[in-house]
Write a structure and sequence with these properties.
About 45% of the residues lie in helices and about 15% in strands. It has about 260 residues and is of the alpha/beta class. The protein has one domain (about 10-255): NAD(P)-binding Rossmann-like Domain (Rossmann fold, 3-Layer(aba) Sandwich), CATH 3.40.50.720. The protein has a 7-stranded parallel β-sheet, with helices on both faces. Helix 1 packs across helix 9. The termini are far apart.
Amino acid sequence: MNALFSLDGRTALVTGGSRGIGRMIAAGFLRAGCRAVYISSRKADACDATARELSSLGTCVSLPADVSDVQGVQALVAAFGEREQALDILVNNAGAAWGESFDTFPEKGWDKVVDLNLKTPFFLTQALAAPLRKAASAERPAKVINIASIDGISVNPLETYSYTASKAGLIQLTRRMALRLAPEHIVVSAIAPGAFASEMNRAARDHGEEVKKHIPAGRIGADDDMAGAAIYLASRAGDYVVGSTLVVDGGVSHARA
């Protein structure tokens, strides 16, 4: 059973890995035995600081990059390629949100969010196809895990139009990419988190006692909840989970329905 969920010897890259859900996943991967976990984020200082802190768990390397456009994607891929030839696990976690009323919602709030949340996961996976293919085999597939959101599954009352659209699109993109890459032993799946304390979800971070009143499980998500879901999908245990989105939300999406 330990081997079933082990990531022993594997190499991972987590975008948006300096904080929040990305950091939870990176820490979990190191505890599960990853040989090296590379984390990326737009803010170099924060990325470097997190890598230093997580290095107490194993090898964690900072690769700062702004992956909001294709040029930034290529820069991250080049930096990774200077250090590694193969990639076992890619976590597309970097994301953004924008909330504004329907009547005033701006184009920049649409483009910023959709580009990072939906376009970047596709083009980063495409750009890392060679190292993913090099790592992949029938016995041990490479993994791509896209971080979506329950807001792409059920309707949040907040006016976050581009965010909900991008996350719903990412769930469908996960299915499409999974069908294309499965024959090459690259397994694509997704996680749809609910309320986890983070910079993006400040309500859960700063007002957890109030937020948990609306969660059937009676609490916000803990670090181990997210790490456990990601380890499951990244390990042998998740090899046959192809194109699916794992909802990790304490029941919120069902309550909304």
